Amino acid sequence: ASNRNLLVLPGDGIGPEVMNEVRKIIAWMGKKRAVGFDITEDLVGGAALDKHGVPLSDDAMKTALEADAVLFGSVGGPKWDTADFSKKPERGLLRLRKEMDLFANLRPAKVFDALVDASSLKPEIVKGLDIMIIRELTSGVYFGEPRGRHVNAAGEVEAFDTQRYTAPEIRRVCAVAFELARKRKNKVLSSEKANVMHTGVLWREEATKLHKEKYSDVKLDHMYADALAMQLLRAPKEFDVIVTDNLFGDILSDEASMLTGSLGLLPSASLGAPDATGRRKALYEPIHGSAPDIAGKGLANPIAQTLSYAMMLRYSFDLGKEADLVETAVENVLKAGYRTGDLLVGKTDGVKKVGTQEMGDAIVKEL
Amino acid sequence: ASNRNLLVLPGDGIGPEVMNEVRKIIAWMGKKRAVGFDITEDLVGGAALDKHGVPLSDDAMKTALEADAVLFGSVGGPKWDTADFSKKPERGLLRLRKEMDLFANLRPAKVFDALVDASSLKPEIVKGLDIMIIRELTSGVYFGEPRGRHVNAAGEVEAFDTQRYTAPEIRRVCAVAFELARKRKNKVLSSEKANVMHTGVLWREEATKLHKEKYSDVKLDHMYADALAMQLLRAPKEFDVIVTDNLFGDILSDEASMLTGSLGLLPSASLGAPDATGRRKALYEPIHGSAPDIAGKGLANPIAQTLSYAMMLRYSFDLGKEADLVETAVENVLKAGYRTGDLLVGKTDGVKKVGTQEMGDAIVKEL
Ligand SMILES: CC(C)[C@H](C(=O)O)[C@@H](O)C(=O)O
Ligand SMILES: CC(C)[C@H](C(=O)O)[C@@H](O)C(=O)O
């Protein structure tokens, strides 16, 4: 046995297609670098709904909890849009995040030199951009109770959600940000709406306290989430590590990802706390969704899924060298001019338009 | 008496400076167009805290409720950063919004041809951009109860906020969006996180119902707030009117405003429901904040405040012609190359760097 138990959850839409390309790389790694995995595959999202009536079966949940890592595709699609709240495909993903306690979501936004022109932003604003957004992933308004709907005293239908954060929840995700910053440019920007929300006030306090206690060597700044949404467009290169809550992180990391020109490029890692042996539960997924409009057409960009696999090599299996190999192969393929449709913006002279499989093959060949 | 009761609240930071420039235009309007106002002035934010110990006095609140319109500057600054939550300068503004019941916040994001180059985005993405974001302003997580902090059952400090929306609250702001869309490009994009939040589910349902009942001639689409944060960068010109809740509106409208190149340009209107005589309570304020870093230096751009005044002429006093005059004057001054510091990005040949007063004078001269 390889001692590397991997659960693969391709999900819906383009998930299975892009995952197929990663399988080619997994095979290459097994053959050429003797990096093997014990792979289990299961359903999630709409695919699981269709088969089991729930967006994630208890069996799959159990496998995920026992796996060394989960490689996740994407979920959702028009077929399941009218599903009840508790049965939306997204609930499968949210259940994984919550029950695996994956509180730290690492979302890099990095601009490849070869793709500077694919961004909607001017090259001078984004060239060389390399920021890391750390989003809290298991609390906040995504999970806070009470939540639901009722008829209020005035006889009106009313819906409500609760944003809730405890001091330890804030501290543990900020600690991940400070630790990472030490390996990068040594600065952290913490973002909330402390001028409006009580959770924001506590967030700022705890980030400040933790910084004083343990990380005063790292530079810490604070910015309201609305101001950050602007600064990310004005001067994104001023940032290095950004830490924020679940909901702000959802929006701001999607905004940041567009600075790079395509969602089709960006991976993410969701990590739990290390156990006694240093092992962390972990799930890796592309930033992009299931893109039902192009699903099944061989048009999807497999790079984000590929780089998610590379992040897994690095963060879950300490295979930094192999991760580098994959990342360099992707960079070279982009340099060589290979482009899926999502990347065909801006200058397109000297580029080669390819589909999902050709892009996957090009990466394997480059390896 | 003019029958136009105006309350002017310059506030903190650059607020008083930019308001001074608007006073020149008000004077011009009185002299040249016989458009006069009965003006009362009062304190808000840090200025009110210093004098009255509260960020808005009951007296000022009363005057605001009786006024035909409020012209607001900006609030906040480092001096008051450590103020208690209930005494933050921002609470003055939030009290005005809530007690005047200004539920519809209109935030235009328009790109002036003369300033296409000031945007961080490529000219082809933003040239001709003209979108209107309608943000719900009196409900949601800004005001929902319960909110606060306690020690939870596990003995941890925990903070919480409540996002709450009733069906009528959603309907009335969506109605404003549909009405406005009819005078524009006849399409509305409604945004929430219905895949995660119960308030989002109700929001989508009510927008859809109202559309069916009364506005089926307008095109209605829905988009999750994170996807919208991306699309605003990818293809902003696809949008016309966007309607969303208080918190998403705060972030997304700030993001959208950066597409235009500078916050120093953008006005906003916050409107209540029309009473029996058709009169709406209203407050007009620039999108930008108090910018403490440049306050008192004569560097601030008075255009956003000036255009807020123009919006007031149009929406509160039915003086569309006079509003046009002001807007055209601003456009011409920009065409002529006048630029405050915030606009000095991108190409700067043929431009004339000016301060707050020179910009104000140039606008009056152009009038
Ligand atoms: C699919 C959805 C529930 C999810 C979220 O909102 O967290 C997605 O947008 C993401 O960012 O991973
Ligand atoms: C000053 C602050 C309370 C306010 C808000 O969050 O609404 C501001 O950001 C705005 O958008 O008007």
TrEMBL record, chains A, B:
One of its GO terms (molecular function) is 3-isopropylmalate dehydrogenase activity. Transmembrane segments: none annotated. It catalyses: (2R,3S)-3-isopropylmalate + NAD(+) = 4-methyl-2-oxopentanoate + CO2 + NADH. Binds 1 Mg(2+) or Mn(2+) ion per subunit. Pfam families: Iso_dh. The record marks 142, 193 as: Important for catalysis. Substrate binds at residues 97, 107, 135, 226. Its EC number is 1.1.1.85. It comes from the Bacteria. Pathway: Amino-acid biosynthesis; L-leucine biosynthesis; L-leucine from 3-methyl-2-oxobutanoate: step 3/4. Residues 5-363 form the Isopropylmalate dehydrogenase-like domain. Its cofactor is Mn(2+); Mg(2+). It is found in: Cytoplasm. NAD(+) binds at residues 77-90, 289-301. Homodimer. This is 3-isopropylmalate dehydrogenase.
